Amino acid sequence: MRLSGKTVILAVLLLLALAVSEASGNPGAPALQFKADAAAAGEYITLNNLVELPPEMAQRYGQALIWAAPPPGQIFTLTREFLQYRLTQMGLGEIIKDAHLPVAIQVRQTGVVLNPQEISEVFKRHIQGQSPWQASDLNITVYPLDEPILLPDNKVTLEVLPPKGQERLLGDLTLEMVVLRSGQAVKRFKVHGKVILEQMVVCATRQLNPQTKIAAGDVRLARRDVTNLPQRDIFTAEKQVIGHILAKAAGPQEIITGRHLSNTPIIKRGEEVTVVLDQDGLVITTKGVVREDGFLGRTIRVGNSKSKKEFQAEVMDAKTVKVVL
């Protein structure tokens, strides 16, 4: 069948019209109606918040970010000129070509704010769960966020991401948290806080001068901030320092640390000591003679006074060593 010239021209014009229709988003459809009052749930205003889009357009353009959402309880005004500029800037100018745009759109926030108390509790639980110290010894302060965390709804969970290269959870800390919704991360943010470690440690009861031999009344246990002190340098029982010679002065209420003590041995070779044997909680005491000078916390050779057998024991104080079987 042969086509006339007019028929061919009409067919070409029809194809061009269809192409223009597809490029402009189907002009035959009703013009888009933008809302005068809109609501945003979360941190951003999206195109879906401002206009009812057809399903295909909603899927392609609906999540386009127009602007930051207002804080809860506040309203942002988007003018017609701003919206035209913003959508054109984003390459979506065709969407509003024939749309009905009000002079201004009032946008309010309908999302929820992540509860600061929940953030604080998650921070504290993480520190307490990862810390080698008792929860009662930790004083944890969580600082407020600079800005609230806005979410579409409260159907979320909050978790702490594993710290990177942070071994000692003490002092000034920063933890990264993630908000999960149906197992998917929707928001990450950082929380700052401070963790103070307080323990019962040996402190001076009075001014103690260098070369003083520590007696029972010179020290006592007191609760102190030991956050910045190495655990190996502090003492948690008075007997650990009694009999030691001070290498430097200690003021009243000052924490006695290993740096205060002289390197002079607290037990000398040939001295008789009390040997404490601890086997599964069953404690037995006997006498022994040390075969070498002994320093606090170190292991030395001790001989049994009766059997003459030699064994290893840890120096507990100037008169006591301990064997754990």
Describe the structure.
There is one protein chain. The chain is α+β, with helices and mostly antiparallel strands. The chain has four domains: 22-110, Thiol Ester Dehydrase, Chain A (Roll); 116-189, no CATH class; 198-260, Antifreeze-like/N-acetylneuraminic acid synthase C-terminal domain (Type Iii Antifreeze Protein Isoform Hplc 12, Alpha-Beta Complex), CATH 3.90.1210; 272-324, SH3 type barrels. 17% of the residues lie in helices and 34% in strands. The radius of gyration is 38 Å and the shape is rod-shaped.
Topology:
Layout: H1 5-23, E1 37-40, E2 44-46, H2 47-50, H3 55-61, E3 65-68, E4 75-79, H4 80-89, E5 104-109, E6 112-113, H5 116-130, E7 138-142, E8 150-151, E9 157-160, E10 171-181, E11 184-204, E12 219-225, E13 272-279, E14 282-290, E15 299-304, E16 310-317, E17 320-324
Parallel strand pairs: 1-5, 13-17
Antiparallel strand pairs: 2-3, 4-5, 6-8, 7-11, 9-10, 10-11, 11-12, 13-14, 14-15, 15-16, 16-17
Label this structure with key terms.
325 residues; alpha+beta; Thiol Ester Dehydrase, Chain A; Type Iii Antifreeze Protein Isoform Hplc 12; 4 domains; five-stranded antiparallel β-sheet; five-stranded mixed β-barrel; rod-shaped; disordered N terminus
Using the alpha-carbon principal axes, give the shape.
Answer: rod-shaped
Binned, the helix content reads 10-25%
* End-to-end C-alpha gap: 108 Å
The fraction of residues assigned to DSSP E strands is 25-35%
Uncertain stretches of 5 or more adjacent residues = 1-25
Number-wise, the strands total 17
- Going by helix content, strand content and strand pairing, the class is alpha+beta
